[in-house]
Amino acid sequence: MTAKKWTIRKHDHERVQQFARELGVQPLIAALLIARGYDTQDKADAFLSPSLEHLHDPFLLKGMREAVDRIQKAARNGEKIMVWGDYDVDGTTGTVLLRRAFKLLGVESEFHVPNRFTEGYGVNIPALEEAKARGVSLVITVDCGIRSFEPLEWAMENSLDVIVTDHHLSDEARGNPPAVAVVNPNQTGCQYPDKHLAGVGVAFKLADALLREAGLESEIPGFLKIAAIGTVADVMDLTGENRAIVAIGLKDLLLTDNCGLRALMEVADCTSEMTSYHIGFRIGPRINAAGRMDVAKHVVELLEETDFVKARQLASLLDSRNRERQQTQQKITDLAFAEAADQADSNFIVVAGEGWHRGVIGLAASRIADKLYRPTIVLSIEDGIAQGSGRSIPGFHLLHALEAAQDLFEQFGGHRAAAGMKIRSERISELRTRLSRHADDVLVPDDLVRELSIDAVLLPETIDLKLLAALAALEPFGQGNPKPIFVTKGLILREDPFVKKEKHLKLKLESDSGRQLEAVWWDGVDQLKGRTLRRGSRIELAYVLEVNNWQGNRKIQLVVEDFREA
Predict the structure, then answer these.
(1) Are strands 109-112 and 161-165 parallel, antiparallel or unpaired?
(2) Which is nearest to 121 in space by CA: 138, 94, 152, 143?
(3) Is 174 helix (H, G, I), strand (E, B) or coil?
């Protein structure tokens, strides 16, 4: 791992104390709220108590009126509607959500989720041709379509109407593709107040609008469970409207009557607690595994299944696919790291391999970008065509970089942090050169140093379950609202680090006052390389607080982010 630059936030003590009194919260919570921009009572109240009132009017979205009118027309005329969802968790959950709304409205629909390996990303003409032949007259996309120009041009020429719902960035030069309506908060000219909706979030807004028009407002909150899962798993900012979607959706998720969700929570061991962590690291990966390893339509089938026995079988299938994904991911990541070793001096990593599993190359790109702290693209080559996935770092806009080399691609799209692309294999070398040159022009040295932003310094004596309970007011945590990182100074390692599963470390610590604490450092063996940590070491520890719940015993656990010698 690259070295980290610690930045310890400073707080205005008097302001924090006054704000804490106004809100009736602990000073630490007040300090965290101020630091995150919730520095007035109204802002703090909205953040601490997300509600349905924080959901915006769906008709503020450009194109929503046209989309609703076209769907209502299709319903009146008994037209065949197809929902076309992307194959990731965002697209599949959005597909389920829209079809459930249609069912409530008495509208029949079918769905199509492309196979990643045979169809690729986005809308394609062969599947549209098949839909047209079956009598489909209206296609509604979920989490895709904003850059599907040729397929949508074909649809228009062949009298097949398309409504695009998406959240990815459009092609600035070409604008929107031809469609009856485009519903996307990030399209040019859309004044929607929240630009961070997930693809499933945009699908939810369409369902919201349709249900409102039908006088079924009371049904709307029930859709937030599925919307919450897709929003968290797609790593969207958990601020603004997304925070309300996720917070409300999580509240009674464990009590869901959806057979598929219940079965999935069982196989993911999420039957006693459900937080954004459980969605992001247990539920989401199993849903995504279907699209990565096999056929993503299994997710839609699972979440629409009404027989629990069948749902349990489908959930077990996703679970086995996820284990297969983990093994494949490790293999491809190891190969990609070996290739990346030759680019140690480059500010942009581009690696490629023949026949690498396309379902896990995005995960491999994430691992490399995180470890080397460089924007990274990983490509899989088959029959002279490379399909790839890119991940970025905070100081670098990945989509802008790809646009600077757009003449090299057969196809590409994405946003600031992640992207997908298709390119001829003979152009990879030039792509590597041009992206590296672009990164050299854009990045400054500080962009390539990982910053560890520390929220506050805690004394060992203040670390207890009561503090952790107070921090729960800031849930749900995730992108845009990370778990607070704290630092405690003057800690002494009581024993040599204990190695778990050959890669994790357990630390037993003690303060000068005698307070004993335990910490876990995930992947600590790898991150410790080049540094020394042994019995008697005096350190400053940066960490997040968690509860270790083992056999009914709850105790504080420090999850290590980094350490420095005192």
Answers:
(1) unpaired
(2) 143
(3) coil
Q: How far apart are CA 120 and CA 58, in angstroms?
A: 30
Measured at the CA of 444, the angle between CA 380 and CA 523, to 5 degrees, comes to 55
Closest CA to 160 of 91, 112, 208: 112
* pLDDT tens for each residue of 117-152: 899 889 999 999 999 999 999 999 999 999 999 999
The closest of 211, 8, 10 to 97, measured between CA atoms, is: 211
List 506's β-bridge partners, or say none.
498, 520
- In which band, very low, low, confident or very high, does the pLDDT at 533 lie, cut at 50, 70 and 90? very high
Kindly report which listed range (6-15, 16-25, 285-294) carries the lowest average pLDDT score: 285-294
Residues 271 and 45: their CA atoms lie apart, in Å, by: 30
61: buried, middle or exposed (CB in 10 Å: 19+, 13-18, 0-12)?
A: buried
Encoded tokens for 108: 């029949």
Q: How many CA atoms lie within 13 A of 464 on its CB side?
A: 4
Residues 399-418 pLDDT 10s: 999 999 999 999 998 889 99
Q: Report the C-alpha gap between 154 and 143 in whole angstroms.
A: 20
The amino acid at residue 541 is L
Longest distance between any two alpha carbons in the chain, whole Å: 77
Distance, in Å, from the CA atom of 222 to the CA atom of 35, rounded to the nearest integer, reads 33
Tell me which DSSP letter residue 79 carries: -
3-state secondary structure 441-490: HHCCHHHHCEEEEECEECCHHHCCHHHHHHHHHHCCCECCECCCCEEEEE
Is the pLDDT assigned to residue 550 strictly greater than 80?
no
Q: Report CA-CA distances (Å) from 409 to 65, 90, 144, 418.
A: 35, 25, 18, 16
Burial of 371 (0-12, 13-18, 19+ CB in 10 A): middle
Give the type of residue at 209: A
1 falls in which pLDDT band (50, 70, 90)?
low
Contact call for residues 35 and 455 (beta carbons, < 8 A):
yes
User: Which token pair is 535?
Assistant: 């019995």
